Amino acid sequence: MSTNDIIFMLLDLAGALAVFLFAMKLMSEGLQKYAGSKLRHILTKITGKPLSGILAGTGVTAIIQSSTATTVMAVGFAGAGLLTLSGAIAVVMGANIGTTITAWIILPSLASGGGEEFAVPLIPMILGAISLFFIFSKKNKMQYLGQTIIGLCLLLLGMWLLELAVPELDAETVHTISTWGGEGILQVLLFIVIGAVLCIILQTSSAMTAVILLMGSQGWIKFDIALALVMGQNLGTTLTAQVVAMTTGTTGKRTARAHLVFNVAGVLLCLLLFVPIRDGIMSLTGISQMPTTAADKQLYPLAITIFHTFFNVFTTVILAFFIPQIVKIVNWLVPDRKEDGEEEFRLRYIEPNVISTAELNLQSAKSEIEEFSKRVLRMYTFLPSLRTAKDDNEFDAIMERIGKYESITDRMEMEISKFLTKVGSGDISAHASERVTSMMRIVDNLESIGDTIFQIAMTRRSKREDAVHFDQEMNDNLRHMTDLVQKALDVMDANLHDYDHINLDAAYAAEREINHYRDILRKRHLDALKLGVYDFNVGNAYSSLYALYEKLGDYVINVSEAIDNSVKAAETFGTETKQ
Prior knowledge:
Methane Monooxygenase Hydroxylase, Chain G, domain 1; mainly alpha; 0% strand
């Protein structure tokens, strides 16, 4: 084989693999957008029982055709506090089972024998034609379904192109490959490492599975090596979760470590039973150790797929009983850390880079917004202390804390908005786009709440410096206004934590109370000025304060309205899907 022949062969293989990888990405993203927020609901409704988590992980992975996406969601949700550590581990276990579906999808194209140039592409062409009916639909959900079908079409086409691009190796080359590392356990361990490295390079276990099936169908590797590569890819696929977990909280990191611990334990378990498992599958399918006959080559992909499924199901069933022990191990590997002080700026949930799973990006942003709300509510509780401060030192210390919080709210608004802008500029569903818009509005209003609290504090400072004093009635009135706004803030915060059960009536009721009381105070204030009850400086400080509290209430209701808009958008798209 000449140098030119080798170069063209490698280019053919690279092109075919690129089509396969693009197809996996297209199909996975199409399914994620079609499923929409249901993915989040499925995972966040998991109970403490391992079975529910395993079934959820299996189902979501089977739907979106990406165990990596499911694992990353589990890591993110655990970091956001939406999943317990044991629940997240169960989801990751289920994801390992769900990923075996890909092998069964591409198996028929290999079992058909491959070589006929028009027999295999017939199915992709039919799927491509079917997808046209969905792509040109006016309904977003149907377009996403069309994208999914096109992805499946290209997946099968990519598999066929890989078969055509793979050269026929001579017997000597095949023998050389099959003798790497000698014989027995050392060879198996070597190819486990090779499988892990290749999976890390390809960044998808599904593509690695396709490569292993193809090598088996071409008679390049013996069965021991094929099984070792399958186990190796299960180790390699854990890398993405480790990278994502680097910027999450302690629970997120522990979930990622659990993914690694679980897969390592699964490999060790299968190594102990390697010979009986291998011999049982060989006996079941009737293949020999080295595929030499055409019949062997045709059955090899089936045998490898059976092992792939058995390996993931078997290890999950066994290790599911040891989830408490896995939790203890990862708690030891990732010990509790002393959290940064609440008065230091630190994003807790959003990642520095936007990942492909839109639902995880939005859930991370939602969790960060909840943290933003928590900071704002904490900042608001400092205001009463300004009135009761015993001396200037205490007053200045409280002002310094409010100023620090105001700076934090500015930075949180900037960073979260920047993150949401990146998410919104990506290829996301119409519903996700609406959620991004609503979240941008929420973040803007939360920052405005922080600014207004700071303005109230500055007004208090000016009042103190100018030696302006309120009588008891004025202080009582402002205290009552403070309580009304606190009530509105509490309703807002509750709505931010549960979009599905937003209490807009309570939010509007709190807003009306604030406006009504502001009107009462304004009327009394004007009457007092006319009667000369207090001078201009006192009246100006007093009216500025109750006006700022009312302004604060406006920003608070804006947040609940933005949440409501997001919910209504979800209902609109859901109705559209059912029509």
